[in-house]
């Protein structure tokens, strides 16, 4: 699913498909953790192996920042000129700034208990830090793109009000829940003990492996600790992750596509708000196919990829037909060879194959992540 060209620069190029993080946790690690409750994440406690790795948090932060860029720019553009394509914008530069500013704001948020007044921290100190960092990041981006120190004036009242609201959302909604994620870790072998091979966690629908004598054993996935789910992220959170990842895919793809076509003039990529639902639902279904075909049927990667690709093309075609009927379709491949109705093209087949392989890695990584509900 592709974002369309924003201000009439031409038909949209689309990038990205389903994808998913890497590395599955072992069943034995989950069982070892079952006997004692583990802390939530780096933000909540510093127990070994419980926190999300720094690379994973940065990955989430960059993706979340791009999502906010797309939502805000699409809303502003729609307010100026209603367009059912709902185009939004961001760039790899902004992604880098977002992951750094989000990480810095996480460190600020962790100091909240040192403030004697929760109200002062939540509604004054944290918003000030958020607005200041975002303003500095915006200036740094302008300077980096050659805008010069006078390229933009001081932020207006509307911009400051928007940043204040985003700061409240960031501290009271996003970080409060994001920092309740934890990453299951493998059980460390005892000194002198021979390491035993760790089976992958059994996803939903996986058939039990056959034991000696032909008898099947029930798959031993990670057990739940107190208050923790016995599997990875809930389905709704996985859908949200894949929808945001769709924004990330298209922003990066259209940005680099424009760089190749326009050179230094390209400063941002584009996508459509509809891509959130297209990618979120498509990747969610492809993940289910992965769990079934890999764990239940034992299919290899190159046996699964053709199934993924066929499904993705059918999904893109069906969404394109529906959005075109409403005047909301943001892509048109009519100028490409090997296209069908201008909605799908074999020109992007190598990209879809790559993203299908990456999808399996994302699925495995998400399977290690758990969400601890609030009390």
From TrEMBL:
Superkingdom per UniProt: Eukaryota
Region of interest called Disordered, as start-end residue ranges on this chain: 1-43, 190-229
Basic and acidic residues composition-biased segments: 1-10
Family: Belongs to the TMEM229 family.
Main location: membrane
Transmembrane segments: 119-141, 161-179, 239-261, 273-293, 305-324, 336-358
Keywords, comma-separated and alphabetical: Membrane, Transmembrane, Transmembrane helix
Native organism taxonomy: Eukaryota, Metazoa, Chordata, Craniata, Vertebrata
Ranges of biased composition (kind: Pro residues): 192-206
Subcellular localization: Membrane
Protein name: Transmembrane protein 229A
Membrane topology, from the record: Multi-pass membrane protein
Biased composition (Low complexity): 14-43
GO cellular component terms, A-Z: membrane
Organism of provenance: Cnephaeus nilssonii
């Amino acid at each position: 699913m592709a974002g369309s060209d924003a201000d009439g620069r031409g038909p949209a190029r689309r990038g990205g498909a389903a994808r998913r993080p890497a590395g599955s946790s072992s069943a034995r690690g989950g069982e070892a953790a079952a006997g004692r409750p583990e802390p939530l994440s780096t933000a909540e406690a510093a127990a070994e192996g419980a926190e999300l790795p720094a690379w994973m948090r940065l990955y989430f932060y960059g993706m979340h920042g791009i999502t906010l860029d797309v939502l805000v720019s699409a809303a502003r553009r729609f307010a100026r000129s209603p367009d059912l394509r709902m185009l939004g914008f961001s760039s790899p530069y902004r992604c880098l700034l977002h992951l750094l500013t989000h990480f810095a704001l996480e460190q600020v948020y962790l100091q909240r208990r040192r403030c004697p007044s929760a109200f002062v921290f939540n509604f004054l100190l944290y918003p000030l830090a958020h607005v200041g960092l975002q303003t500095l990041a915006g200036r740094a981006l302008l300077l980096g793109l050659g805008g010069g120190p006078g390229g933009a004036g001081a932020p207006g009242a509307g911009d400051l009000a928007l940043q204040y609201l985003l700061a409240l959302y960031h501290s009271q909604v996003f970080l409060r829940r994001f920092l309740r994620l934890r990453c299951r870790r493998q059980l460390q072998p005892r000194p002198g003990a021979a390491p035993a091979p760790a089976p992958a966690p059994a996803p939903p629908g996986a058939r039990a492996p056959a034991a000696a004598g032909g008898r099947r054993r029930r798959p031993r996935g990670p057990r739940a600790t107190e208050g923790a789910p016995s599997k990875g992220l809930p389905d709704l959170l996985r859908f949200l992750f894949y929808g945001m990842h769709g924004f990330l895919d298209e922003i990066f793809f259209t940005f680099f596509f424009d760089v190749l076509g326009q050179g230094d003039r390209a400063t941002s990529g584009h996508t459509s708000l509809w891509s959130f639902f297209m990618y979120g639902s498509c990747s969610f279904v492809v993940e289910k196919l992965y769990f079934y075909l890999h764990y239940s049927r034992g299919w290899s990667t190159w046996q699964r990829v053709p199934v993924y690709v066929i499904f993705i093309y059918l999904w893109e075609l069906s969404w394109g037909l529906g959005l075109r009927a409403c005047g909301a379709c943001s892509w048109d491949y009519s100028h490409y060879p090997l296209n069908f109705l201008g909605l799908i093209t074999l020109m992007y087949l190598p990209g879809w194959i790559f993203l299908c392989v990456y999808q399996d890695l994302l699925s495995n990584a998400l399977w290690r992540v758990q969400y601890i509900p609030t009390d």
